């Protein structure tokens, strides 16, 4: 408040002549950032909780014997054949958690602006313009939004019972860190939101385009021939492809190549595997992997 003073936002407030901006966030910044950090982890935690009860009874790591892999491969081929086309629920869980992550980023930006009193939307842009077009009389947007020295309004009752106002100088030392923290958050939100939108576009392409799904599967299963990948994509729906893409990073390239080849052979009329493998029981749950596409 005030004009022609030695420090921005410093001066005597005169009713009708000076503008006032109240700072109500100062003592709550730590709690706000802590709650935000916990909430932003929510989509990942939800994804793990949703898929925790849908896992295979074993993993595909540290396979030292060929017999171990043959048992697990036969079980997995049987499982994929029995549940072919029935993994849509798992796929939609993943897509919804991706949408939740985008929605949380947008809501964080809005909530941060409300928390700072409407001074966050243009914070990064104002800082960028200040760094490139600053003059000796230009006030830094960091100082304007997060003043280190300002005027506080204290009210007290006099002996006569009237309310008097007193305007002492107040130091706000934590704002030396707050301005940099929220500037980082501004660009961090923008970057994450942009990357999330690109990822959403990428997922839309995969969902709607079979050649894109074949290329994505080829990235995880490099040893599988092109014609075998093409037959797998044509014989299985989107949810089966999604399961295999998430399972592939946990397996050796040779093993995933054998698995895809066997799946194609089984689906196209090879040996029947309707009876469950002798050494492994029938699965009661569907596939799960913590990896993302």
UniProtKB/TrEMBL annotation:
Keywords: Cell junction, Cell membrane, Gap junction, Ion channel, Ion transport, Membrane, Transmembrane, Transmembrane helix, Transport
Location of the region described as Disordered in the Swiss-Prot/TrEMBL record: 270-293
Compositional bias annotation for Basic and acidic residues: 273-285
Membrane topology classification: Multi-pass membrane protein
Source species, domain of life: Eukaryota
Family annotation (InterPro entries): Innexin
Record localization: Cell junction, Gap junction; Cell membrane
GO cellular component, as recorded: gap junction; plasma membrane
Keyword Transmembrane part of the UniProt annotation: yes
Parts of the chain that traverse the membrane: 25-42, 89-111, 186-209
GO terms assigned for molecular function: gap junction channel activity
Single GO BP term: monoatomic ion transmembrane transport
PANTHER family from the UniProt entry: INNEXIN, INNEXIN SHAKING-B
Similarity-based family: Belongs to the pannexin family.
Function as written in the Swiss-Prot or TrEMBL entry: Structural component of the gap junctions.
Protein's name according to its UniProt entry: Innexin
Annotated source species: Halocaridina rubra
Name of encoding gene: inx
